[in-house]
Queue: 3 jobs
Job 1
Amino acid sequence: MAVLKVKFTKNKRDKLAQVLWVLNWVSVVTGIILFSLGLFLKVEINKQREVMSDRDIHSVPNMLIAVGLIACGINFLGGKICYDCVDTTKFLRWKLLMLPYIICTFFFTFCILVGALMCYTMRNELEESLDQGLRDAMRYYKDTDMPGRCFLKRTLDMLQIQFQCCGNGGFRDWFQIQWVSNRYLDMSRKEVVDRLRSNVEGKYLMDAVPFSCCSVYSPRPCIQHQITNNSAHFNYDHRTEELNLWRKGCREALLEYYTQIMQSIGLTVLIIWLFEISVLTGVRYLQTAMENVLRQGDPDCESDGWLLENSLVETARSNFNIIKNLGKCNQIDTANNGDPNIDVPSTAHYGPDNVPPKQIPMVN
C-alpha cells in the first residue's frame, strides 16, 4: 500500500511543477546562504588563530562551504527538471534520472542536518583548542624580540581589551608564568636576582598582570602589580576588589562569543534543512505522479502520487533482497557444475547408447 498517496489532476500537477521550480531557485539562494555562513565562521575562527591550537576546528565551516556549493548545483538542476515536468514529452528526458536525483538529494539534505548538529557539538573541540592555544600564547608573551612570536604580546593585549578578559581561566594564570622579558629586568637589584634564584626553572614570577587586564570600569587607578599584597596599596583588599581587573578568563569569553555564533548558524541551517525536505517531498510527489501518467498513456488524466510505493517495512525488505541478490550474482555455483575452470565434456549424442563410434584405421 502506498504511503501518503495523493491524487493529482493535470492542473494540480502543472501548478506543483511551477511551484517547485520557484522553490528550487529559492533553494539556490539558501545554498548561497550556507556558503556565506561557512565562510563567515571560517573568517571569525581565523581572526583568533594565534590563540588556538592546531586542532580540527575548521570541519564545521568547511562542511558548510561544501554543502552550500553543492546545494547551488543540485537545486539548479532540480529547477530545470521541475520546469520540464509541465510537458509530458519533456519529462521523458528526465524519467530515468529523477529517482537517482531524489536519492542523492535525500542524502545531501541529511548532510545539511549533520552540519546543523555539528554547530551545536563543536563547543568541546573549540574549548580544548582555546585552552591549549592561550597557554602557549601566554608563555610566549614576553618574546617580543623573537621572530614568529613578536606579535603575540599585541595579540593578547588586544584580545583582553576587546573581550574584557584576563588570562586563560582567570587573572591568576599570569602569576604562574614569566611574562616580563629578562632584558627588562634590572639584574643589579638583589630583589630581582633572589626572585630568579628562588624559582626552580629560573623564572621571574610575580603577582602581577599586563596592563590590558585592567578594567575600564574601575573606580580607582588600576592595580596590576602586587595584586595579592594588601599592605602595598592604600585602602585595598584583593579579595573584595571586583572592578580593578577583568575577572573572566579569555577562554570563557571567546567560548561564549563563538557559541553564540554557532548557535545562530545552527538554527539557520536547521531551518534551511526543513525547507529542503519540503522541496524534496514535492519533487517526489511530482515524479511519481508523472510516471503514473506515462503508464496510463493519457497526459490529461488524473494520476496518483506518493512518497513510497509500498509501506516502510515492505520497501526496506525489497531493498534488502535487491542487495542480497546483487551479492549472489557475484558468487559462482560450483555445487552442481564443479570447478568452472575445468572443461565440461560435451553432451552430444553419438549413438543410441551414447557411445562414440569406433575409429576405423586408415589403410595405406
Job 2
Amino acid sequence: MSEETFKKRKLSSENGIDVLEPLPKTAHIQCPYLDTINRHVLDFDFEKLCSVSLTRINVYACLVCGKYFQGRGTNTHAYTHSVAEGHHVFLNLHTLKFYCLPDNYEVIDSSLNDIKYVLNPIFTPEQIKQLDFNTKMSRAIDGTMYMPGIVGLNNIKANDYCNVILQCLAQVRPLRNYFLREENYANIKRPPGDSSFLLVQRFGELLRKLWNPRAFKAHVSPHEMLQAVVLWSKKRFQFIKQSDPIDFLSWFLNSLHMALNGTKKPNSSIIYKSFLGHMRIYTRKLPPPDADDAAKIDLKSEEYAEMITESPFLYLTCDLPPTPLFTDEFRENIIPQVNLYQLLSKFNGQTSKEYKTYKENFLKRFEITQLPPYLILYIKRFTKNTFFVEKNPTVVNFPVKNVDFGDILTPEIKAKHKGKTIYELVGNIVHDGTPEKGTYRAHVLHTPTQQWYEMQDLHVTSILPQMITLTEAYIQIYELKQD
C-alpha cells in the first residue's frame, strides 16, 4: 500500500501498537508531463472551437502544441490527439481546469496559474487604480518588452479601420475601468434570443488582454471581437473589406449602449456617461431661389420661422473648407491648412450653414449646451459626388494639450460648466492614401508616462507630439482635464 493512501497514527491504546489508518484519497496526482507544456505556442485569442469538428462545446486546448480539441472521454478528439501525438496536458477553455489525458485526471499545480491568467486576465479595483500610475514595462515570454495598454492589434485582412477605434477607446479611462471588471456587466439581462450582449463580453475580453501585464506575447488578435462585430452588424462591418472608422465608431458605441440596457437618459450607460453631449439646433427654411414672384413669399409666415430643437450627440462633425482649385503663383500646390478653432466655430451658435435637400434649402446654426467628459471630433475628409469619392487633404492645426472648448460656448453656458472646458488629446486617428486604397493608423497617449505612441496594426512606435499635428487627422478623442 502506497504512502499517499495510508498514514501512521499512534493510537492511545494501552499496548501502544502503531495502527495504519486509511487516509481519504488525495484530490490530485502529481503530473509527470508538466515540463512538456510549451508556452510559446499558446494563443487564446482565436475562436474557442475544436480544430477537427469545429464545435464550440466542451473545448480543450492542448498545452503542448496549442491546438483546440473537443472532449476528454475515450474516442473524443482531445483523447485521440493525446494518444496519437503523445501530448498529455490539456486545459478546458470554459472551466479553466487542467487535465492529463489519456489517464483523465485533473492537474492542480500553482505553476499553471500564469496560463490561466493569460486566458482570462482578472483585475482588482486596486490594480485598475494603479494603471494610471504604472510606468513599468512588462516582458512577454519571447523577451519582447511592452507597455500594458499599448499593444499592437493583428490585422486579419482589412480590419485596420476597426483596430484604430478599439485602440483609442482602450485609452478612455472610465470605459476601460468599467470593462476591465467583468462583474460590472455580468448580470445585465437581455431579452431571450438576443445575442448583442456578446459584443459587450468580447469588448471586455479584448480590453483585459490589451491591459494584461503578464501576457505571453506583445500583441493581441481581435479575432473573437471582430466575429461578434460581423455577426451583430449583420455583415455590415467585416474584416475582409475596408470600412469607414466613423461609421464603425457610431454603430459600435450605440450597439454597446443598447446591449448595456441603455436608455435615452444621460447616465443610463457607461457610453453615455463618457461621450454624450447636448446641443441646440436652430433651423430656418430658405425661400426657393427660382421663385417666380419673390414678393409673394411671406418670410414672416410660420413656414419660414426659426425652429429650435434639442439634440444629443456622441461626436461632433467638423467640416473642412473646400480645397483651392488653382495652384499658387509659383505653380506649386501648397497643402492648405486650417486651425482647429476655425472648424469649431460651426458650433458657436452664431455661424450659419446652408444645407440643401432634394427640394428645399435650410439655414442651420449649432449651439453646444453641454460638453461631455470625452469629446469626439470627426473631421469630414471625404465627399461623395456622382462619380467618385474625393478626399480633402487640408491639414488641421490643433494643440495636443490645453484645448479650450469654452471659447465656442455662449457666456451663460460657459458659466454652467464652471471653468471645466479645458481638454487634452488622448487619441488621434489618421487616414493615409487615396479614398479607395487608404489605410488607418492611430496615435494614443500613455497617460502615466505622457508618451505618445503611433499604432498601425502590429507596429507600435513612440512618436513626438509635434509630429501628430502634421498628419491628416480624421477622428480625435479629447479628455476633459480634471484638475
Job 3
Amino acid sequence: MAALRVFSRNIPYLRQQFSALLGNTSPSVKFICIVVIIGYVLSYSESVVNVLSVTPGFLLPPSFQLWSTFTFWFLEIHLWEVIIDIVTVGLCGKLIEPLWGQMEMMKFFFLTNIGVAFLTTFYYLVIYAWTQDTSLLFEIHVHGLAGYLAAVSVAVKQIMPDHLLIKTPLGKLTNRSLPLLILIAAIILWAVGALEGTYPCMWGSGTILSWVYLRFWQRHSSGTRGDMADNFSFDNFFPTVVQPVVRAVLGPPARCLARLGLCPSPPRRVTLALSPRGVTISMPGVEPHDMERRRQIALKALSERLSKTSEQTRQKNLSTKVNMDAVRKMQASHVIPQFPTETTEQKPPSVPETTLVDISAEPSTPTTKTS
C-alpha cells in the first residue's frame, strides 16, 4: 500500500515527464506507445497472451500462425518493461527519426521485430533438437520489444559510438559496448531466475539482425547501401582484447559469403578529389552525414578541451598573482628605516628676533632694531 501511495503521488510528475518526452514526435511514435500501453492492459488475460504472442511450435506448420509476428511486439506483462519501451521509442523519435526519416524508422521497426520472431523461434528449435523437450515449443511465449530495444542500441552505437554514458572504476562506458553488456546482464539475470529466458534470446536476435541490416542493406540518400566502416564491424562489439579472436573466427565465413555474393566485401580504396576548398578524401564506408556528425563531435571535444586548458591557465595565473601580492606585502612589512648621512647639507639655525632699546633717548620713544 505504501508503494502504491508513493506511485499515486508521483503520477503528475510522471505525466509531465512523458509528455515532455513524447512532445514534438511523429504520429508513428505516439501510435507505438499507445499500442504498447493497450497491450499491457490486455496482458492480464492469459488467453490473450497465448493468442497474441509467438509460440515456437505454433509458428511452424501445420499451425503456421504468421499473424502472431505482427502482434507479439506490443504485448508486455511487466510495468517496468512498458516504461522502458516508451522511453526508448520516444528517444528514437528524438534521435534516429530526424536522421533517417519516418518511413525508414518504421521499416527498421517492422523488419527487426519480424526477424526477431523467426530467429528466436529458430533458437528454440535448435535447443529442442538437442534436449527433446517439447515444452520449449509449446509453453514458451515470445512477446515484447526486447529485440527492438537491442536494435536501437545498435543504431545508437552506429550514430554515436564514442558517446560517454558513465564513468566506472573499471573504465568508461560508451555506446560502443552497450549492446554486449546488456546481453551479458540479461543472461546473468536469467540464470538467477530474475528474468525470462526469452529476453536474452530476443536481445541477441535484435542485435544480430539490426547489425546485418545497417551493415549491408540500409539504403542511404546518396544511393549507397550499408555502413562498411571499420568501427562498425562485428568484432567492434567486443572488448579490444577479444577482437582478434572474433576476427579470426568470423573472418573465413565472411569471406566465403562475400565470394558467394551474399554480402559485400568492404572496399579498400581511398578516393582523392580536388575542390576549390582543397583536397577531398573519400574513405570507404563513410557517408557525408557521418563525416559531418563526427566533425561536430570532434569540434565539441576540442572546444571542451580548450576551455578546460584555458580555465587551468587562468587559475594558475591567478594563483601566481596572489603569491606575488603576498610577497610584496611581506617585503613592505620588513622595510629598513633610512637615516641621514654625513654629507647631508645642514641648514643654518634660524636667528631669533631681538629688540634693542636706546637708553640715550627719552623713555617715551624707544627705538627698535632688528638684527
